[in-house]
Amino acid sequence: MRIPLTAEEIRPRCSADNLPFKTTDELEDLPGIFGQDRALQAVEFGLGVLHRCFNLYVMGPSGLGKHGIIRKYLSRRAQSEPTPADWCYVRNFEEDYKPRALKLPPGQGKTFKKDMKNLVDDLSKAINAAFEASEYQDQAQNLEKVFNKKQAALIEKHAEKAAAQDIHLSQTPSGFMLLPMENNRVLTEDEYEALPEEEKIIIDQKIAAFQEELEYLVPEMTRQRREHNIKLKKLNRKVALFATSNLIKDARRRYKALPEVVNYLKGVQDDVLDHLEDFTEKDDDSNSESSSGDALQRYQVNLIVDSSRQQGAPVIYLDNPTYHNLVGRIEYESRSSGPNTNFTLIKSGALLQANGGFLVLDAHKILNMPYAWDALKRALYAKKVKIETLDQIAHADTTVTLEPEPIPLRLKIILLGNRNTYYLLHEIDPDFPELFKVEADFDEELKRDDDNTLQYARLIASRARKFQLRALTADAVARVIQFSSRLAEDAEKLSTRLRTIDDLLIEAQYWASQAEHEYITATDVQRAIDAQVSRTERIQRLIQQDIQGGTLMIDSSGEAVGQINGLSVFEIGKYAFGQPSRITASVHMGDGRIINIEREVDLSGSIHDKGVLILSALLASRYTRDTPLSFAASITFEQSYGHIDGDSASLAELCALISALTEIPLKQSFAVTGSLNQQGYVQAIGGVNEKIEGFFEICKLRGLTGEQGVIIPQVNVKNLLLNSEVIEAVEQRQFHIYPVEHYEEALEILTGMAAGDELVDGSFEKDTLNDRVVKKLCQYARLRKASEIRL
Questions:
Q1: Per-residue pLDDT averaged across 532-542, rounded?
Q2: I want to staple 65 with a disulfide (CB 3.0 to 4.6 A). Which of 291, 348, 498, 562 is the partner?
Q3: Is the model's pLDDT at 288 over the cut of 60?
Q4: Quick one: CA dihedral 423, 428, 429, 433, positive or negative?
Q5: Would you call 56 helix, strand, or coil by DSSP?
Q6: In DSSP terms, which residues pair with 636 in a beta bridge?
Q7: CA–CA separation, 118 and 299 (whole Å)
Q8: Residue 408's beta-bridge partner residues?
Q9: Where are the alpha helices (DSSP H) in 255-274?
Q10: What is the CA radius of gyration of the chain?
Q11: From 386, 412, 667, 691, the catalytic residue
Q12: How far is CA 391 from CA 136, 330, 334, 396, 402, in A?
């Protein structure tokens, strides 16, 4: 028979007596990061490899401090990297809808933008001054005089021809007018109407004939005007070129080391000469200032990446990785004529802001943003960023829009996420392993030995100082370490979930201040733990009330056949608690099939189904090797209406099944948890602390009798980190914890009978549990055979 664990065996090993300090004031801060050597080596490697595909995936559950660690490493690494270039968009004078991207040395983008604004102002002043100069006015007036003289001579020539035919030719704003004449005098309308009809017909015919001759006059006048405009434009261009050439030369000289900028300035000069009207002052136009501003917008510089304040490489953390926040966007202005855009409305995204440095993204967030993940991969493969609208991406944009020149991309992506996301991406996205070749896997726990315990104490001291908390006493540190091991679900390990530890320290600080303690004590830490439980245990208390009131039927005393208390863990939000569940089994003659009622009604998960299927294989191999199983059984979780999964109930289910088969009652003062293999050995389960404490709470509410207890796998003993109430009850022999390695050991505890050893002939010792199982199975086999013969 197995013996229960003693209080000393389950008592926490860490106490103030084991720590070589009285308060954390005596401890130095912990340098660097504790317990993540493997992950940190991967981070160092991933950040050090310059190849574009060696991006980094940092994985591990939340709360490990991954973000803080990555920030620290990136901050140090970025300072040693060169400051990246500035980038700006300017107008493409050859194709307006394809803005050009210009690269400038760090900090010069802002200077270039200012220089261009000043240059445009200077050009406008120089052009207007040149056109207002007397030399230009004289030349322009001479051209105008020559033109007017030619126009007058041409009109006079045709007027003389008309007068010879008694027709008066005059020019009006709307065109030419032909009127009848008599004795070199224009006839009035009344005089014309008074003429005989025959004369009016003759006059009309002469006017009509001369009208055809005027058809040659208008094109000739238009040709002369066109020639005049060309001459005037050449004059304007010559004067403007003379007035602006030195300004442009100075600007080009200033940026002679940047060929792309010099080439752009040459284009500016040509475009200015082609759009001189935009630079001239128009006093008559009330909206001339705004009109001129819109026109001169073509020479603005859209600085989309400004590194003037950057020291080293940029480190960008994009918390909301939408497509536009990642890649950039093209904005639109609302106008009366409809939405309008231009190159000055192009905005950069995080990829360009982090260009030349590091971009940190949350894997879950970017995968949930439409088009964002594909856009990231596209940019990494192409090594450039192309800013497009979502309509362009979806091929749904039929309107004319901008197509900015792509900008070369060189950066390191750090993707933070959990392991499930990492493995899922590896499975379904062939691009992922190509682009993210380095994984940094952060451990949730580390080995708990004397050295690590002391280092963990220094970590606690460092975190307390970081948040400006009171120092902790040694017993408070010991309680935090116990709490950490409980988080790791292993007394031999420590949790690295820093966020949870930080929260506990901050809450303990509150209780220490309430109690006016100079230091944070173990009492303050325990009050913080109790308060956390109290805030989240409502559902557990409701279930316990239902059990106490008899609504949920759970026995904690007496005996019953085919009935046992199993143990389950419920997780609601961040709170997990254990509760007993009644498991029952019924047996009758049959074909060896064990019916899992939960499975039949689709309330059972695949792992639970596997556990039940193992039972029939175990029974057959253990008790009826030469004959088929000849019984049928059904197993169920009573009063369970939700989904059940996991195999931690298979030990309890086998005990209930053997009890129903042999009609030997089981003690209801015990609850059982454990997973079985096909050889009958008990395997480890999760949530052992919560399960024990859950059944203990029920027993405590009903009154501890000294007979109650739990049966757990032997391998789970190292996971025991129970609360002080359970430890005290074990010490006073009011509650018992039995570890078992084989299902027969659990049956001996539950029935009080010996399991019985197997003899040489394959039978078992007489009047033992195993002997009664074999006899009952043989009885069923005979009955089944007899029924088959009768049929």
A1: 90
A2: 498
A3: no
A4: positive
A5: strand
A6: 584
A7: 11
A8: 384
A9: 259-274
A10: 46
A11: 691
A12: 51, 11, 18, 5, 12
Domain residue extents for the chain: 7-33+444-536, 36-75+315-442, 90-309, 542-790
- Would you state the pLDDT for residue 290? 47
Catalytic residue (one of 292, 484, 648, 650)? 648
Backbone dihedral region for residue 573 (phi beyond 0: left; psi -120 to 50: alpha; all else: beta): left
- For residue 368, the 8-state DSSP code is T
Return the ∠ at Cα 676 (arms to 672 and 681), rounded to 5°: 100
Question: Confidence band (pLDDT; 50, 70, 90) for 266?
Answer: very high
Q: What is the mean pLDDT of the chain?
A: 88
- Collect all residues with Cβ–Cβ distance below 8 Å to 257 and sequence separation of at least 6: none
Residue 437 appears among annotated catalytic residues:
no
Cβ atoms < 10 Å from Cβ of 416? 23
Report phi then psi at 407, rounded to 5.
-110, 130
H helix or E strand, kind and range, residue 569: strand 563-572
pLDDT tens per residue, range 185-207: 777 777 777 778 787 777 777 77
Q: How far is CA 723 from the centre of its chain?
A: 38
Q: What CATH number should be reported for the domain whose range is 542-790?
A: 3.30.230.10
Strands 407-408 and 384-385: antiparallel
Max mean pLDDT among 219-233, 727-741, 765-779 falls in 727-741
How far apart, in whole angstroms, are the C-alpha atoms of residue 303 and residue 103?
Answer: 10
Q: Is there a catalytic annotation at residue 691?
A: yes
Q: Say whether pLDDT at 782 is over 90.
A: no
**Cα distance between residue 376 and residue 396, in whole Å:** 21
Output DSSP code: residue 473.
Answer: B
**Tokens 């509150």 -> residue:** 510
**How far, in Å, are 108, 622, 628, 777, 789 from residue 782 at the CA level?**
97, 19, 11, 9, 11
Comparing 278 with 514, the larger pLDDT belongs to 514
Query: Which CATH code fits 36-75+315-442?
Result: 3.40.50.300
Looking at residue 572, the DSSP 8-state letter turns out to be E
**7-33+444-536: in CATH 3.20.190.10:** no
Q: Quick check: 395 pLDDT over 70?
A: no
